[in-house]
């Protein structure tokens, strides 16, 4: 297949997947499509792993090395507002995070490797459900992913709006943060708005808590250690002329180590319960761990950077980029096996393509970077499993 035909195939795959988005653990059509494409390539395909997940194996030669390449496959619950001929056909579902592009990229790598056969060993193409909920990687591992399909190393990629199209960046250590969710339930005593002295105002109490939580970052955290606390919902059962009885604060925290996660949880609990106590209110504090941090293995970062240099040139590769405080459940895999996660630029203001933010109703994956991503993964396999 020549370059022009290959790029057309990548775009065809990507746009089909974009127009048929499915959310977490519901990716049945997506899984069917992937399995057919991979089977038609001649790969050994295993389905229904962790729900709708797929592993496709390609072995060339007698090498013992095994490398995993992973793509996420789920969409998010968002109504698309883009004006493309391939916009979502599933109401309220949209590939607004670029997983359609990730899938097409990994399919492209599989296509290149089946044709070139320029490596010695085994590649496992892992298509993972439910990344957006943070549950898919754990579901595949619970279903015996690494016992049934062991790998020596695993690699993944995410597109990044705002980065120059086709550039590649990564870093050793934490590259994407954990996500922990919290709920703070405050029970005061409602009263008429004209008589606040007769109640225990949970809005004022909750407001004190929201402000006090920010002092954890400014006064309990080492300034050189990244962490974020965000209160994102503030819910009351009051009306305009009545002070409510109940307030619920919801939000999340982001960090990179278990030690920081523990500190945030303990300080948030102490502050919330303490402020409620001094104001005579009741407090229920809930804190859950949703996403593990994505922490790259240094030796695998070296491999990724070398492959990226070979494909796009040194001037388009950043091997020590800034970490991103968003979360990605690829981190769960990296707690079990060595690996590396990279960002590929989706486009910036200089080209006017691909710079709409992720999870935006007008976001679209930049088809111009599909071939670059596929070539990167194919080169990575050539580097790691030399003939």
From TrEMBL:
<feature type="binding site">
    <location>
        <position position="158"/>
    </location>
    <ligand>
        <name>Mn(2+)</name>
    </ligand>
</feature>
<feature type="binding site">
    <location>
        <position position="97"/>
    </location>
    <ligand>
        <name>Mn(2+)</name>
    </ligand>
</feature>
<keyword id="KW-0464">Manganese</keyword>
<dbReference type="InterPro" id="IPR011650">
    <property type="entry name" value="Peptidase_M20_dimer"/>
</dbReference>
<feature type="binding site">
    <location>
        <position position="132"/>
    </location>
    <ligand>
        <name>Mn(2+)</name>
    </ligand>
</feature>
<dbReference type="GO" id="GO:0019877">
    <property type="term" value="P:diaminopimelate biosynthetic process"/>
</dbReference>
<dbReference type="Pfam" id="PF01546">
    <property type="entry name" value="Peptidase_M20"/>
</dbReference>
<keyword id="KW-0378">Hydrolase</keyword>
<dbReference type="GO" id="GO:0046872">
    <property type="term" value="F:metal ion binding"/>
</dbReference>
<dbReference type="InterPro" id="IPR017439">
    <property type="entry name" value="Amidohydrolase"/>
</dbReference>
<protein>
    <submittedName>
        <fullName>Amidohydrolase</fullName>
    </submittedName>
</protein>
<feature type="domain" description="Peptidase M20 dimerisation">
    <location>
        <begin position="182"/>
        <end position="273"/>
    </location>
</feature>
<dbReference type="Pfam" id="PF07687">
    <property type="entry name" value="M20_dimer"/>
</dbReference>
<dbReference type="GO" id="GO:0050118">
    <property type="term" value="F:N-acetyldiaminopimelate deacetylase activity"/>
</dbReference>
<feature type="binding site">
    <location>
        <position position="99"/>
    </location>
    <ligand>
        <name>Mn(2+)</name>
    </ligand>
</feature>
<dbReference type="InterPro" id="IPR036264">
    <property type="entry name" value="Bact_exopeptidase_dim_dom"/>
</dbReference>
<feature type="binding site">
    <location>
        <position position="359"/>
    </location>
    <ligand>
        <name>Mn(2+)</name>
    </ligand>
</feature>
<keyword id="KW-0479">Metal-binding</keyword>
<dbReference type="InterPro" id="IPR002933">
    <property type="entry name" value="Peptidase_M20"/>
</dbReference>
């Amino acid at each position: 297949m020549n370059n022009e035909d290959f790029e057309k195939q990548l775009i065809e795959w990507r746009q089909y997947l974009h127009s048929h988005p499915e959310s977490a653990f519901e990716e049945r059509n997506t899984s069917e499509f992937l399995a057919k494409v991979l089977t038609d390539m001649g790969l050994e395909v295993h389905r229904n792993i962790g729900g709708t997940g797929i592993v496709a194996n390609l072995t060339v030669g007698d090498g013992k090395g095994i490398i995993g390449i992973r793509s996420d496959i789920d969409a998010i619950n968002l109504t698309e507002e883009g004006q493309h001929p391939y916009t979502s056909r599933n109401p309220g579902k949209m590939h607004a995070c670029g997983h359609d592009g990730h899938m097409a990229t990994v399919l492209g790598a599989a296509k290149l490797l089946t044709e070139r056969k320029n490596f010695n060993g085994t590649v496992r193409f892992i298509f993972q459900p439910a990344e957006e909920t943070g549950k898919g990687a754990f579901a595949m591992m619970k279903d015996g992913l690494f016992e049934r399909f062991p790998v020596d190393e695993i690699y993944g990629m995410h597109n990044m709006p705002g980065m120059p199209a086709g550039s590649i960046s990564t870093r050793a250590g934490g590259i994407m943060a954990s996500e922990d969710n919290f709920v703070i339930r405050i029970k005061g005593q409602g009263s008429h708005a004209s008589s606040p002295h007769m109640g225990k105002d949970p809005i004022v109490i909750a407001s004190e808590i929201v402000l006090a939580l920010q002092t954890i970052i400014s006064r309990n955290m080492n300034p050189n250690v990244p962490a974020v606390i965000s209160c994102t919902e503030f819910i009351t059962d009051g009306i305009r002329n009545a002070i409510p009885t109940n307030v619920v604060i919801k939000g999340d925290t982001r960090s990179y180590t278990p030690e920081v996660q523990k500190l945030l949880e303990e300080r948030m609990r102490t502050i919330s319960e303490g402020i409620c106590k001094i104001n005579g209110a009741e407090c229920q504090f809930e804190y859950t761990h949703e996403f593990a941090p994505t922490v790259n293995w240094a030796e695998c970062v070296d491999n990724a950077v070398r492959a990226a240099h070979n494909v796009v040139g040194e001037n388009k590769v950043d091997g020590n980029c800034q970490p991103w405080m968003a979360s990605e459940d690829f981190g769960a895999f990296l707690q079990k096996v060595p690996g590396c996660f990279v960002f590929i630029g989706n486009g910036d203001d200089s080209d006017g393509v691909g710079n709409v933010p992720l999870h935006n109703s007008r976001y679209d994956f930049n088809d111009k970077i599909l071939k670059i991503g596929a070539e990167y993964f194919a080169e990575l396999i050539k580097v790691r499993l030399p003939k």
